[in-house]
Fold:
Amino acid sequence: MPYDFTFHTHHKAYYLFRMAKNYLPYADLPGITQLLPDLPVPFPIPLIGHNNYVFCAVTLTKKFQQYFPNAKFIRCTTGTTTNLFVRGPEVFKEVMIKQAEAFPKPPEVYSVLNLYGPNIVTTNDSVWKLHRRVCEPAFSEEHMKYLALESSKSTELMFKRFGEGVVTINADKEMTDVTLEIIGRVVFGTNLGVYENVPIDTSKHTITMRNALENTLGLGLLVRGVLPQWMNFLFPGTCKAVDEAGLYIRELIERKKTSTEERFDLLSLIATANDTSLDLSTNEMIADSFVFLFAGFETSATNLQWILYELSQHPEIQEKIFQEVSTVLNGKEPTYAEYESLKYTNCVISECLRLHPPVTFLPKVAKRDTVVCGQKIKQGTMVFLDIVSVHRNEEYWENPLEFKPERFDTTISPRIVPYAYAPFSIGSRKCIGFFFSLLETCVILSKIVQKYEIRAPAGVNYSKNPIEEYQQVTIKPRDLHVELVPRK
Ligand code: HEM
Structure:
């Protein structure tokens, strides 16, 4: 018999002991207790594994906003574990900057992303520093000119698919496709075949790179990242997709290493930087470029969807973007050079990241016993930085639920409360791709507004039936459709 399912007395005693040990230090904090996800039964544990508290966190952040809008520390006891939700600019500053060394990322939460090995997102300390040092130059502003150019070309391909005249689009599909096309061009330096068919080299592959990557990002993460290895045989197609995606990236790296052509995609830049310092192995580069895809495309696509939603509800804001885009671009393509001048457009993007941050909470773990803003935190406690609740708190933002891009115009608004805005995280682990995303979004948005008016589809009234937020990797608007009406 592989498992003994009996819940013996010594199991119960151990369970109660662990529960008390992890609960008592936080007993005086507001919060919730739920027994279920951590029962000491062997079977569900490998199934949902140590990521069970992430599932809890996802479902709980909204409830916490409702029940404890102003609490700085909230206790969340699940099974024998007690996690803390922490909120507020001062707490963020302590955890992410002043005491950052005491609060690394919990490796077990991120292990799901180790599909191709440890990488820039999942590592800590000196290993992370090495990844970050090799990858950083690929994100420098100099290379972002290439990103602006490719973002513009990809948006044109999207417009071509829309055809002439009024079009109603499925925002999730279109924004996901355009950001995937851009990641293909700018991260991998290849055509993933989003807008046209790319032939498969049947001597090496059975599926396209796009299919392999999409399958890997979907079921692949679950099958290879969460389920125990012995269950892989149940998902032969998914495992093949994960292997083929790795093979595709390996082939690109090998080609780039031997190519003499000057290239500006991130993988080429990392492969070249690496040649001279011999820092990262090919496997580590595969792992890093995969997480650029993971971290970079759904987040940006989600932000764009929320922007389309907000603009469909605010024609006056749309008109202001149109006026700015018309003045600054005068009918030309947006490039890197105009980014700074598209001030209002950038305020709209920042405001959308405030009201609808794609990443709503960030997990950290206390490496030692410490005190944060007067609260004792015990070594081993999981700490979730609750970004969305700070972004929507009236203590730091006037009328926080109102979409008001002017908040980010420093010439007319008071200064933003320091550390109350963290869509890309803060401190040394801040998103490496934050400017990549802001620039890409600015190009796509200014091109859409240049060409179209954005409206809710006929018969749909989002002010009567507000769009629902739902959680995938990021928090997205559920089933958003918008109508694009060509400008005269
Ligand atoms: C709206 C778009 C984006 C948002 C909201 C976003 C948000 C974030 C956040 C909150 C983190 C910190 C994660 C953590 O500590 O667990 C992060 C890290 C990261 N992001 Fe982004 N991101 C976006 C776009 C991008 C893009 C376009 C790329 C790459 C092309 C990217 C690559 C990364 C990487 C590699 C890290 C890990 C950095 C490190 O730990 O050194 N992100 N991002």
